[in-house]
User: Fold these one by one.
Assistant:
Number 1:
Amino acid sequence: MEELAEDLVLRFKLLGSNGVDFLFTENGPVVLEINPRFQGSLDTIEKAMDINLFEAHVDCFSGELPDKPNAKCFAARGIFYSDREFFIDRELMDIIIRENAPTSLPRNCCKSRLSSHFPVSCTSTRKMQSCP
């Protein structure tokens, strides 16, 4: 998939940050779309690769391409929607902070009441076994 994504970006002469979305099928991966823009997974890529994608994106337009980074850890993001109103108390906020999970919630949202269907985005990373 990585090789196919790189081939497509070169074939379409895309510059900067680009994303290629795949769907896994019984016959292997199938390209769904090519996105010539920053991806929704920007924060997870930056965490996993330890790279500033915005800087790399801007630099590429002056001919400076970064070396291809290796992943330093796994990163994932989840967006949660509550089906009912909920309350963030100190205990829940302490868990979020302890897990070092960046979130769309402000750190001072303790004692906040969030309405139903309020999106909460959390990003989490875990070191890979080969990382020190």
Number 2:
Amino acid sequence: MMDGKLLLVTNVADLTPTEVVLRYKSLADIERGFHVLKSEIEIAPIFHRLPDRIRAHAQICFIALVLHRVMRMRSGPPAVRPHPSGLWSC
């Protein structure tokens, strides 16, 4: 009878139950980041062979996601977001 229950199992013995739950919940944030990259930032999959190009592509995606989050934080709640041209004024 596990209706409505979520069972988390881990192979990391030194985590407390609270830490396991927090790590599980952080997955949602990571998944949101990938969703933003694919939908709002529109970064498409690109296949690279060279390790330097793979690292550069990953860094560009990471920087794009960080900039997106910074702009959303600076712009405030959705109901009061200003025009994007005013987001970076000091």
Number 3:
Amino acid sequence: MTFPSPAPTSSPVVSVSTGNVAEPHSALVLAFTLIELLVVIAIIAILAALLMPTFGKAKESGKATACISNLRQIGIALQVYVDGNNQRFPSMYDKPVVVDTNQPATNAMPSPDKVLAGELGNKNVLRCPSDRNGIFEQTGASYAWNFFLNGKRSDDLTVFEMKFDPHAMPIFYDKEGFHAARGPAKAVNYLYADGHIKNLLAIEGTIQKK
């Protein structure tokens, strides 16, 4: 007597992660799912790499806006000082960045953080949010003062016997290109004597627009 041979059967597959017995078909579906997941992760990584510069510029743009706000407050403080001192700018010099603890003082004039302390109120206004090199901590300000205006009348801006309009004379500006992430033309913010702020002073005597 002959018996019919049994139908071929597939060996069950044991899942390593769960210990459950799964049919080969289920394992095949799981394998495809893992491949798809890896593809999605790769796509996300590529998109993140492409968008990182954009996010960096957006973040720096926010810091630059805070920097501009600081410069406006410095301009108001300077105007209060000028109004109380016969329309004359103060005489002051920026502190140098200290490279040697025994380095002697290079000038006897006080720095802006000392001269304008009463008008500023909060000295943190002199700190640019993008100052990452500790310039504020070392010198008392992230912004440089145009010392050519020392003692000059605010209503008669004459430097080297040349008369300047207030809109063409910078009075405070970033000590470094703190905002270089926005591009070379927007790396430095300038506060002008008439209170407006631009990104870049053109040396030729004209002001480039944003």
